[in-house]
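Dear H.,

Thanks for agreeing to be a second pair of eyes. The structure we're designing against is below in token form, covering all 246 positions.
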């Protein structure tokens, strides 16, 4: 399948890049450090709700790390190919835009899932000393995967709009930070505005997952956000191709 071929190509580029290994190392080191500090806090507090509270803090920290990591993973997906001219060359082959977009998306999501899964070593270590209920962790990690996919979709769309990787990363940060901060200052918002903006917040949608709960409305929102970003990516590619052919 063409999608598989595109995904394999992107994975080879990721795992053949020193930059990727540097990003992965920083991500895992910071995730490990946050686990250490969070665990230390709960131990000092006398083990207060370790089974639930510890993982809520840890999952929210990993969420913040994904916010930093994913734009750096997605910035080159289309921007680099457009700058090098290989994207125009790709259009001369019998491959559809949707296959290219889905292949690149799946490759990046696979990398994100791999890095997120690597942080599961923390609860595994803790099980040697303290009982760790699997339910909240399954919900939390499932939420991280859905949130990571939404981030990847957003970054993929932005990367399709520009030839500059720096611009792609910066714009993706801007969009994701907007969805993060949209409901921060709740005291300054009217009740009507808050009711309108709260459902738009990607990060507020993740909080139930971090608490160990799965709400189908949150799952649906994250999936629809991801699909919308992929549709926008296809539209952006089609528009740029049409302009290039004129």
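And this is the sequence the design step returned. I haven't edited it by hand at all.
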């Amino acid at each position: 399948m063409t999608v598989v071929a595109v995904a394999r190509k992107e994975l080879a580029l990721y795992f053949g890049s020193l930059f990727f290994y540097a990003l992965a190392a920083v991500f895992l080191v910071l995730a490990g450090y946050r686990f250490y500090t969070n665990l230390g806090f709960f131990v000092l507090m006398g083990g207060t709700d370790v089974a639930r509270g510890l993982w809520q803090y840890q999952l929210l920290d990993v969420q913040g790390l994904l916010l930093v990591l994913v734009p750096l993973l997605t910035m080159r997906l289309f921007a680099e190919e457009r700058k090098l001219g290989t994207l125009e060359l790709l259009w001369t082959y019998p491959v559809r835009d949707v296959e290219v977009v889905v292949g690149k998306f799946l490759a990046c999501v696979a990398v994100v899932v791999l890095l997120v899964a690597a942080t599961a070593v923390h609860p595994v270590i803790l099980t040697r000393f303290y009982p760790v209920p699997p339910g909240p962790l399954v919900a939390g990690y499932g939420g991280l995967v859905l949130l990571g996919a939404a981030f990847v979709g957003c970054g993929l769309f932005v990367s399709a709009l520009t030839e500059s990787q720096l611009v792609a990363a910066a714009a993706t940060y801007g969009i994701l930070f907007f969805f993060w901060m949209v409901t921060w200052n709740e005291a300054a918002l009217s009740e009507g505005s808050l009711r309108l903006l709260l459902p738009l917040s990607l990060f507020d949608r993740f909080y139930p997952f971090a608490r160990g709960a799965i709400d189908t409305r949150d799952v649906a929102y994250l999936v629809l956000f991801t699909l919308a970003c992929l549709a926008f990516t296809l539209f952006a590619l089609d528009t740029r191709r049409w302009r290039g052919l004129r």
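Two observations from my side: Residues 2-245 form one domain. DSSP finds twelve helices and no strands in the chain.

Warmly,
E.
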